[in-house]
Design goal:
The protein is α+β, with helices and mostly antiparallel strands. Helix content is 39%, strand content 28%. It is built from two helices and four strands; from the N terminus they run ββββαα. The chain has a four-stranded antiparallel beta sheet with strand order 1-2-3-4, covered by helices on one side.
């Protein structure tokens, strides 16, 4: 069954935001990502992908998500800082 996701709650933005999805070729996943801050909110894998992907390592995917969220969080904070200081 397929679901259409329009908005989802982002813990970084502290509100419901629009989302977009992106494919991650390295882990053969679909990632649902916040349009405002870029945080990875949900990772979708089919049972077929999980069964047939022998290189898939859950810890590697978790590490990747954490690293990506740290990077986007830092860039979001910098944009907020510069916009408040009037530099942008």
């Amino acid at each position: 069954m397929l679901y259409e996701i329009d908005t989802i709650y982002c813990s970084r933005c502290q509100r419901y935001v629009n989302v977009f999805d992106a494919e991650n070729e390295e882990f053969s996943t679909k990632e649902i990502i916040c349009t405002d801050c870029g945080k990875i909110l949900m990772v979708i894998r089919s049972s077929f992908q999980s069964r047939n992907d022998s290189k898939f390592l859950l810890k590697s995917l978790d590490k990747h998500i954490i690293q990506e969220n740290i990077k986007t969080g830092k860039s979001q904070k910098m944009r907020e800082f510069f916009s408040k200081s009037g530099a942008l």
